[in-house]
User: Fold these one by one.
Assistant:
Number 1:
Amino acid sequence: MNFDLTKEQEMIRKLIRDFSEAEVAPGADERDRTGAFPYEIFSKLAELGIMGLPFPEQYGGGDADTISFAIVVEELSRVCASSGITYSAHISLGGEPLNLFGTHEQKEKYLTPICTGESFGAFGLTEPNAGSDAGGTQTTAVIDGDEWVINGSKCFITNASYAKHLAVTAVTDRSKGINGISAFIVPTNAPGFTVINNYEKMGLQSSNTTELILENVRVTKDNLLGTEGEGFKQFLATLDGGRIGIGAMAVGLAQGAYEKSLQYAKERKQFGKSISNFQAIQFKLADMAMNIEIARNMVYKAAWLKDQGRVFKKEAAYAKLFASEICMRACDQAVQIHGGYGYMKEYQVERFFRDAKLLEIGEGTSEVQRMVIAKQIGC
C-alpha cells in the first residue's frame, strides 16, 4: 500500500492551502458575524478551475479524482467551514447526480455551468416530514401531456439561492413506495418555484441554507433525471459520495481547531510555564492529533474506493460518522484548552465549535450512519 499523495494531489493541497490562507481565512470571522455569502471566493476558485474539479473535462471539469475533491473540502474547512460545506454540496450534491445519472444532453446543459462556476450546485431532497426517513417524500410530480407538474416543499437545502437549477426528488407513483420516487432537474427561475433564505442557524453562518416551495412547477419530460422510479436509489448513491465530503469537512475543521489549540498552548503561560508542559493539556492535544489522522485515513480510503469503482457505502459511513464525532470532540476540547478565551469570538474556536455540530446531523445523522453500517455488516 502507498499512503503518499500523488504529485497532482500534493499540488492541489498546496494550491488550496495557500488560497485558503490568503483569500478565505481573513474574512471568515466577519462573514460569520454578518452571514455574507462568500461569492467572491468561489468566483476565484472558478478561475482556478476548482469548481468542476472531479467532473469530466468535456463538461468543463478537471477530471481529478475524489481524493482531490476531499483535499479541497478539507483545506477550505480548516479555516472556514461555511466555505467547506458550500464547496462540498456544490460538487457532491449538485454536480454528482448529474454526472452519475444525467444524459449527455443534460450534462452539457446543466453540469457544464456547475463546472464553470456559472451556477452553484444544489440538491432538493430533505423535507419537513422526510429527514432521516428520506423515503417519506411528500413532494409530488404528476404527468400532464409532455410536462411534469411538481408540487411540494423542501427544507435545509444548501446553495439554492445561488443555483440556476437543481435536482429535486418527488413521488411519481405513491402505490410503489420508495420505488415510486423520481428525480427531476428543475430551473430555479421556473414559474411557481420559490427559494426562501431566512433560517437563523447555530453555525455555518455564511453558507446558504434555504427552503424551497414548488407550486405547480412545470418541467418537460426531458428534465427527468435518470429513470422514473429510480430517484430513491439515485439519492442514496448521491449521499454515499456526499458523506466523503462531510467527512473531509470534519477532518479540516478538526485540524484547524487542533492547530489553534496547539499554538495557544505553547504561548499561554500559567504557573510560570507554557500550558503545553502540563500533561492534562498534552493528552488533549495528543488525542486530537491521533483522531484527526485516523479520520483522514478513513476519508481518503472511502474516496480511493470510489475512484477504483468499488463499493464504498460502508466506508463512507465509517468516515462520515467517525470524522464528524471526533471533530465535535476536538472543537469541544479546543474551547477547553483556550479556557475563558475559548468562549470569546476573538479566538475563533467558538466558531469552529458551533460549525462542527452540523456534521453529526447533515447528510445522514450519526444514528443513520450506524444504521447503514449495521446493515452493511449483515445485521
Number 2:
Amino acid sequence: MKKITYNKQFIDSKDIKLVAKSLKSDFITSGKEVENFEKKISKYLKVKYSVSCINGTAGLDLAFKSINVKQNDVVIMPVINFIASYSMAKNLGARIFLSDVDPSTGQMTPKNLVNCITKNKIKKIKAVVSMYLGGYPENIKEFYSLKRRYNFYLIEDACHAFGASYKIKNKKFKVGSCKHSDLSVFSFHPVKTITTAEGGAITTNSKSINNKLRLIKNHNILRKKNYWEYDIKELSANYRLSDINCALGIGQLNKIQNFVKVRKKAYIYYKKKLSKYSEVIFTPTYKTKNLASYHLFLIKLNFKKIFGDKDKFFRYMNKNNIFPQFHYKPINTFSFYKRRNENFYGAQEYYRSSLSLPLYYGIKKEEQNYIINKIKNYINKKK
C-alpha cells in the first residue's frame, strides 16, 4: 500500500485552468480574483464581509488587531489548540488565560470557560477564542450567551470548519456567518476542506472591523483623493493574498458541497467499522446535530488497556505506510510556557489517548479498510 497521509488536497483540471487564466492576466497579486473570491465567500457563508489573507495564522493576527487587542488585555482560549492563536495574541502583549477542555472532544465547553474566568478571578475580558477542533462546531449558542453576559469579543477559530453549519431554534447557519460571533477565521492550507495553496480569510458583519482589517492587511496605507498620495498612521505589514491563490480558491469553493459530502461518507464508514472495537476505540459523540466539515477523524484509544504505548502505535502505523497525526499538544506543555503549576485534567486525558486517522476527499474505501485492518491486527497482537 502506498503512503497514506492524514490529509491532503484535491486539485482538478478546472482549478488548474482557473489558475492558468489568472497567470495570463494583468494582475497576479491583488486584482479582480481576490475581490471575486471574497465576494463568493460572503455569498456562500451569508456574511456581510470577507477579507482574504495569506494564511490562518495571519487571519488570527488580523482579527486580534482589528479589535485593538493591546498590552495586558485579557484573551481566553482553549489549551488544546494550534499555537497560532496563542502566539499572535502574545505578540500583542495580551494576558492569555488557557481554558481546559472536554476530554472526549478536545473542545472548550461553556462550563470550562466559566471555570477559567472564576478560577482566575478575571473581571474584564477583551476576547475569547472558540475553536472547532476537527471541524465540529459545538456550543455556539452558549458561547454567544456568555459573550453578551461578560461583554467580550467572540472570535471563532474556524480554521478546521469551512463548510460546517449549525442550528439554533431549527434555523441553519454557516460557520463564518458571524450571526453568533464577532469574527470568524479560516485557513485554506492544503490539508483543509478547501485550499488556496496557502491562504486564509476573516469574516465579520461589522463594517468598522472590516474597514480595519482591510487597512491593517495592506500596511495600514490610507489612500487620499489622488491615488498616488497616501498616509500611514500606524505601522503594519503585508497580509495580502494573491490573485493566483484566489483563482484556485474560487475553483475549490465551487466544489465545497461535494467535498463535505464525500468527507462525511468516509467519516461514517470509519465510525461504523471501528464501533466493533468500542472497548478500546472511542469516537467522540458531539452533543449537537451540527453539520461538520469533517476535516479530521478524531479517535481516542485505550492505550493502557490494549495499545500500551502511543509512540509504539505511531511507529507501527508508520511502518505500514500509514501516517496518522495528533491535534493538538496542550499549549501548557511547551517549553516556552512558564505557568507550570497549572493543571488541565481534561486536556491531559485528551492528549494521552487521542489521534487523527487519515481523512480527505479522495480517500478510497480500500485505503480505509487497510487502515482499519492494521488497527485490528495491532489490537489482537496486544491482547
Number 3:
Amino acid sequence: MARKRRTGEVFSMSFLDCMSCGFGAVILFFMIINAQVKETTEDDPSDLMAETRMLEVEILEGRKNLVLAKNTIQELETERDTAEGRIIDDGTIFRLGQDDFMLCCADPCYDWFCLSAVGFDEVEITDISDEVAALAIQGPTSCALLKAMGFAGIEQCKPFQIMRFPWGGGEITVSRTGYTGDLGYELWLDPRDAEALWDALFTTGALYGIQPMGDESLEMARLEAGFLAPDVDFHGSLHTVERGHDHSPLELGLGWILNFKKPHFSGRATLLAQKESGNYRRLLKLDIEGNKPAENSILYADRKCATEVGYITSGMWSTVVKANIAYGLVEAKYFDGPIWAEIYHQKELRWLRKVARCTRVTKPFWSPERAKATPPADC
C-alpha cells in the first residue's frame, strides 16, 4: 500500500514562532541600548565638572607631596653626611659678641643649621646674606691703605681678629681674613654704603697701586696659599650626587680642626674609626716636574700609567713660586708610593701627551711673613 507523501507548508506555525522570537529579541536589545544612551545623555553636567575639579585637586596635592618628599630626601642626605663626618662646606665663623656669631660660607647652609638647632630653645638663626655687603682688600699694601683711609689702629688687628670702625652713617666691621694667603682684610658693612666704600678705596688706593681682582687671579692666589675651593677640590652637600664622592676632613688634610677629646660632635665615631684605620684617601699638595699645568690629569703609580691611583683637582704654573703646583686626591694604599701625572697639553694646535713625576709638598706653596706679622712691616 503506497504511503501518501506529506507536503510542507511554507508558513507553518512553528516557523512563525521562531521568527517572532527572533524579532522580539532584536527589539528588546535595541530598547536596552537606547535606554542606556538616554540615561548617559541625561546625566547632570555639574556632576562631571565636580569630578574633574576633584581630580585636579588630587593631582595638585600629589605634586605638593612629591616636592615635600624631595626636600625631605635632601635634608636626610645632609643629615647623613654630617652624621658620618662628611664635609658640607668650608667657611669662617666670626664671634661678634658673647653669644652672637656670623658664618661666611660658599654654599647655603641655613637649612642645615635650622635642623641642627632643633631642641635648642635659646638659639636663633637668621639668614643675613642680603643684609651685608663684603669687600676683600688683599696684598702687601692693604694695611697701609686702610690706615690712610682713617681706620686708626688697624695695624694691631691680628689674623682672624675683627675690629669695628665708624663709616658713613653707620659702622663697618673689618676682619683680618682673606682667600689669598697674603696680608689682607675683609670689610663687612651695610649694602647701601658699599658703593661709597668702593669709590673711597680706589681714590685713596691710587697711590698704593690698587687693582680690582677677578676670579682667575683669586684662584691662582688661593692655590699658591694651599687653600681649598668648594666644588673644585671637594664636593659640597649641594653638589654631591653619589656616595663615595663626598669627603671627610681627614681626607682633605683638615684633621687639625677635629678635637676628639670632645665627648660628642657630628660624625665623631665615624671620623675616629677612620683615623684609627688610616684607610682613607688623601688630598696632597704636589710639585709636578716641567711647566705644563696638570689640571684634570689622572695620577698613576708608575710611568707606564698602568695603575691609576687618583686625579688632580686643581693645578697651574705658579709665576710666584716658579713651579708647577697642584692638588691631587690619592687612594690610601698608594699614598707613600711614587706618583706620576699623565698630562695632555696643546702646542701649535696639536694635543701632546706627557708623563711627569710628582713630588709631595707638606707646607703651603707660598706663605709670606707679612701675612702673619702684627703689625705688618709696611703699615
Number 4:
Amino acid sequence: MSRQRRNFSAKFKSDLVIELLKGEKDLNTLATENNIQPNLLRNWKKEFLNNASAVFDDKREENLKEKLAEERKEKAEYAKKVGQLTMQVDWLKKNLKKFVDQTTRVNLVRNLLTTKELPASVGAKLLDINRTSIYYKSLPVSEEELECKAIIDHLHTDNPTWGARQMSAQLKNRGYHVGRRKARRYMNEMDICPIYPKMNLSKRMQQAKVCPYLLQNAVIDAPNQAWSIDITYIPIKHGFLYLTAVIDWYSRCIVGWEVDDTLDTRMVINALKKAFKTAKPQILNSDQGCQFTSQRYIDFVKENGIRQSMDGKSRWADNIMIERWFRSFKYEEAYLTQYNNIKEARTAIGRYIHTYNFERCHSALGYKTPAECYYPAMLLPYVA
C-alpha cells in the first residue's frame, strides 16, 4: 500500500526552522516530534537561510510590483483573446446555421465520434444541433410507402386541387390502408400542396417574408426579364428525390436545375448558381414554399440584384410556366423511367433537359426550340 504524500504549509516550515535555529532542540529531535524526515528539515533550513537576504532587499517591493503588473498584462491579453474567440465562435454558429443545412451539420458532428477531435457534445453545441440527433438512424422507407407516394404524385399532376382526404380515398380504392393524416404527411414530405383558395382566418408567421407577385399583366418580350423556379418530387426505385428547375418565361428554356435527396434551401441556391453562370433575370418568381421564404434564399436573391416575386397563396397559375414544364417532364421522362439511384436520375434528367432545350420544337415559339429563342437573343453562341 502506497503512502499518502503530505503537504506542509509555508508557516509550518518556517516555524520549525526558526525553532531549530534557536538551538534549544537538535534537528533529529524536532524531526521525530513532527514526524518528518531529518533530511527534509535540513533542506528547509538551507532554503530558509539562502533566501533570508531577500527580506532586506530594497528592490523586493519593486520586483513584486513588476511581477504583478506582468500578471495583470497577461490576464488582460488572455481576456482579449477569449473575447475575440467568443465573437468568432458566435459568428460561425450564426452563419453555419444560416448557410449550412441541418443534415450536413449532423454529419459533421457524427464524424467526431470517429475522429475524436472534439467531444461530440461540444461539436453539437457549436453547430447548434440537438446532441441526440447524431445517434438517430431513420428507418428505411417501405415499398408500400413508395408505391403510395408514386400514386399521389400521379394524381396530383392530373388533379392539383385534390387534398389529403381525396388522396386517402383514392389510395383506399387501390387497396392501401392510408388515412387522411398519413396522406397529408406523405404530401408534406413530397412538398405537394393542393391548389385551392383557403380562408384567411389568421396571418401566417412567414407573412412578413412573402413578396408581391410582380408578373401580373407583365409583357415579357426578351430573355431574362423573368424566370420561374420551383421544386417537384421524383420517385426512384428505393426512395425519392427532388428536382429544382429554373425556366425563362420568354423562351421556355430551362436555364438551371439541381437534383438532391434532401429538400432544403441549399439545393435551390445551387440550381440558381448554375443558371447565373449564363445570365441573371430581372425578376425571379416562385411559390411561397419554406425554401423560398427562408432568409438565406431572400438574401441570396437580393445580393445578386434580382427582384423577388411570389405567387399568391394557392395560385398555381401564377407560376404556370414551370408547372407546365414539370407536367411534361413527368409524363415524358420521370413516369417512363425507373431510376435506381441519384446518379442515374441526374444523368437521365440532364439528357432530357438537353433534348428539351435544343431539339424539341415548341408550338408557343413558332415551332422553334427554346435554345434558339434564348441564346441568339442574348448574342450568345448557340451550340446544341
